[in-house]
Amino acid sequence: MTVVRKSTATAERQPVTISFAGFNRAWAAWIGNRLERQGHRVSFARFDPPPGTTIEQALEDLMLAEGRILIILSDWYFQLGPRTHEEWNKALRTVVATNPDRFAAVSVTNAALPTATAALSASSLWGIGAHEAERRLLARIGTADTAPPEETPARGGPRFPYDQPRVWGGVPRRNIRFTGRENLLGDIYHRLQQAEQGAAVVTLLGMSGVGKTQIAAEYVYRFGSEYDAVWWVPADQRGTLRQRLAELAPALGLTTGPEYGERLRAVLDALRRGTPYSRWLLVLDGADQVGDIADLLPSGPGHVLITSQNRAWGEHNTALMEIPVYTRDESIAFVRRRAARLDVSDANRLAEALEDLPLLLDQTAGWLSDSTMSVDEYIGLLITGSNAEAGLRVAADFPMTFQTAWSILLNQLRDTEPASIELLRLCVFFAPGPIPVRLLRELPLRDLPEQLVGLMNDPLRWNDATAKLVQYSVVRRESHDVGVDEPGGGSDILHMHRMVHQTVRDGMPEAVRAEYAGVVRRALAAADPGRPTDTRLWPRYAELTPHLKAAGVLESTDPDVQQLVLNSLRYMYLSGEYKSGLKLAQRAMVAWRELLGELHPRIWDLSHHYTNLLHSTGDYVKAEAISRAAVDHLREERGQQDLDLLRAASGLAASLRGLARYDEAYEVSRLVLEGYLELVGVRDSRTLSARSNLAVSLRLLGRYEEALDLDRETLDIRREALRPLHNWTLMSENNYAYDLRLLGRYDEAVSVQDRSVRTHRDVMGADNPQTLRAEHNLVMGQYRAGDRRSQAVLARLLERVERVLGESDPLTLMVAATYSCVAREHGDLDRARAIGEAVTRRYTATLGAAHPYVVGTLGNNGLVLRAAGERDQARELVEESLAGMVEAVGPDHPWTLGCALNATATRNFSGDPEAAAELSRDTATRSASVLGARHPLTLSARVALAADLRALRKRQEAEKVEEEAIATLGTTLGTQHIHTVSARSRTRPYWDFEPHVS
User: Fold this and answer.
1) In this structure, are residues 192 and 202 in contact, taking their beta carbons and an 8 Å threshold?
2) Phi, psi (5° rounding) for residue 166?
3) Strands 229-234 and 280-285, how do they pair?
4) Pairing between strand 280-285 and 303-308?
5) Mean pLDDT over residues 361-384, rounded?
6) Which of 136-150, 448-462, 499-513, 765-779 is modeled with the greatest confidence?
């Protein structure tokens, strides 16, 4: 491979061709940059002579280049092929020694090199700083330093190879035996460099064991000098991915709170903007669950490299690159480096037997290097399938070659380091990927099987067992740096490949599996912090939850393990990990019903968490079925006065609210509150939650004053009984401000909510769903108070909510619905229409056509059409919305009155002022009765009535109604409020429907 780069310097000097091994690409890039700066025209020639080409021929081919040939000497340069030192000495004496003016060299290693390299008179760059290295380089080429001085290295140029990128985290240690893949690495580099900004994403696709992770790691080391920030993230679990991305925040110097949701938002925003670094590289390793993590894929000026077995990445704007097994030449070269005692013929036969699969070649050659067994003997074992003893067999669904190869390796481990087999068996009951094995060592010895006590109690045995697994490439040590302030941080993390994990686990006898799984389950339960509501402990739960499934926690009858499951569900609900929580809850419901019975008390605990998650994702039908079944059984078994019954009934009320059965929800909520008051008293947290839930039911019924009174009382008690910064206190603040806004007390609402949002961000994190709801409440309060700069804020909020929760989440739909209205107000009709219609479609699909959220957003869409001049269609939608809202919530509900206000306008504009005036008068009367004579909706209806009276030429009555309405608007909202100004200018008022998320 030869690449020519022209110098940007003005003074042209002798051309230089840099010959280098791919492993030393970073050195070549830096040296080329330094020479170009001095006016040299530089070309790059990666030295990789094909099989059958002698070294003499390869060196003579280099001499075809113009100018000097600068060789970067390292042990890698001489291993290519691999060739012996004798072959190299002969070639160097024949070609280089006879052409001393054409060749020069620098050395970047302290390893022993062929003796004839003396002919190159190499300058050593090993172990020195950038300034001295550049001085020696120029001296060896014979170039005087005439370039203008640099205060600091150019931001756009390659970094000195010994200088790590400014931000560097999680990258595995470099594999010094990495072999081949030269063209693949070059292709990855060019695809990323040539991609459009925001679309530089490459996915390395291939089966397990083919070397995707190793290729990604080698890419990082070869091209890392061209990045300012490199961050490696295990991406097999959404929770782990979010946590590791969040840990990038302090590394980037971002100022955030301690909660990782807030850090995650800040990181994704910084990457998108390219500040503080635009040259960033993010590696997502093992990203097989595309649907769970695609929304976390960052955009921006940097590059993303993904390793995966899932082709679905092709649907997410990534370039797929298939990773094949080794070529035979690569296999031979790799085996000979891994097992120096094998010759080319041995390596060839071994590669053929193992089908050139890199993982198998690595593990097999590793132990053959230490063994006296010949390759022919080993291949014989593969063919006959022998040596696969009971307890060390591997999974039957792998190819026979793989099964037998693994059996041989595991038996070798058993013979040389028996404790390593015990540790390996424990590891496979964590999830594949990063394994926090330190949790095992924190278990009391009394909780361990006898055969594990010695391993856990003896640091030397533990270290020997770990070292042997690393030596044979069964696991690798994880360089995962966690700050000391992070709960759950620490060392002792091993990384296990998915194929190794499945192979070992599936091959264990059932009795052994049960015993070792029990140990890991106890370790996870012992690590449970016990307080999932404490945001400071969420990183610990983020570390534990990926391993629940692998450990088989749902098969356990241990109360501590079951409590870990329930606490994990609570954490997932509170932190917004709804998808992961639902999957766990669904599996737990099936497993526990079979294990414990349909009516076991744990089932009611689980039902509570399950329905919370279902409510959060909008699946109210299923939530109602689960809650109602719990309520019916508990009422029959225990009677009305039972705490578990009240908890289940509270969940039922939430389901009924989601299904728009508001009267039923109110009655259930009222009975729940009465029950808690009687059983546990006024100040109990459950009573306060019941008060808050009753206020939600009242709010959805349009009884805003009653909701305000309840929420204010609840807030006062929570501030006193809990603390101002408790998340339940913050929730009450949000509800109280929401009530104030719905009552038209906009300035008061903004005053309460502005401070509450800042506290939410500090305590809950900026991406927590509760914080996102609070931010939406604030921006809508500001909008209603007359701040028309809200569109940009709401647009950014919608982007964040979609990224965190997905497009169909109830909170996302609420934000999208209001954003559509604000976009319409700002004249962005195309966007308003597209978003509004999408919201209506999604509501219809999940809630049904008769739900008030469908009906209400249909009316919003009608307002967009009216603004676009499509009056006939607009009237049709607005009238349909009014009729549907009457049917859904009744004629006196504020939502119905708002729809009626919009219908008065379409009737007036359509030439039917009589019908418009009749509806306006009725709406104003009803609104005054329900909301009060001074409520903005009542006053808007009176302004509309005045317009309709003028159309009927009833000017005297119109002026009287209008004058009173404008005067009242001035005293309630202010004379310069946009509603007051619009009324004075006789702009027709309208009403936007806003869905509710409790």
Assistant:
1) yes
2) -60, -35
3) parallel
4) parallel
5) 76
6) 765-779
Element holding 433 (H helix, E strand): strand 433-436
**The pair of three-digit structure tokens given for residue 490, joined into one six-digit string:** 């620490």
The overall pTM is greater than 0.90: no
Mean local confidence (pLDDT), 632-652: 92
The two structure tokens encoding residue 735: 């509800």
| Token pair belonging to 803 | 């990224």
- What is the spatial distance between Cα 78 and Cα 194, in angstroms, rounded to a whole number? 32
Q: Is 188 helix (H, G, I), strand (E, B) or coil?
A: helix
User: Cis ω on the peptide bond leading into residue 82 (within 30° of 0)?
Assistant: yes
> Which residue carries 């070549």 as its tokens?
28
**At a CB cut-off of 8 Å and minimum separation 6, what does 442 contact?**
523, 526, 527
Which of 567, 661, 578, 570 shows the shortest CA–CA distance to 618?
A: 578
Greatest mean pLDDT among 100-104, 465-469, 480-484 lies in 100-104
**Which residue carries 């289940």 as its tokens?**
648
B/e letters for 453-464, b = 16+ CB within 10 Å, e = fewer, are eebbeeeebbeb
Give the Cα separation of 69 and 103 in Å (integer): 5
> Please, which residues have CB within 8 angstroms of residue 845's CB and are 6 or more apart in sequence?
none
Amino acid at 891: P
Query: Rounded to whole angstroms, how far apart are CA atoms 574 and 238?
Result: 15
Lookup: tokens for 555: 């098969």
Q: List the structure tokens of 550.
A: 């692998």
Using alpha carbons, select from 229, 21, 13 the residue that is nearest to residue 108.
21
Radius of gyration of the chain (CA): 35
Q: Report residue 327 as tokens.
A: 């070529």
In a 13 Å sphere around the CA of 696, the CA atoms on its Cβ side amount to 28
- Cis bond upstream, residue 276 (ω within 30): yes
Distance CA 644, CA 666 (A): 19
Q: Which residue has the tokens 């591997």?
A: 394
Q: Could you give the angle at which helices 238-246 and 260-273 cross, rounded to 10 degrees?
A: 70
Q: In this predicted model, what pLDDT tens digit does every residue of 443-452 receive, in sequence order?
A: 888 878 888 8
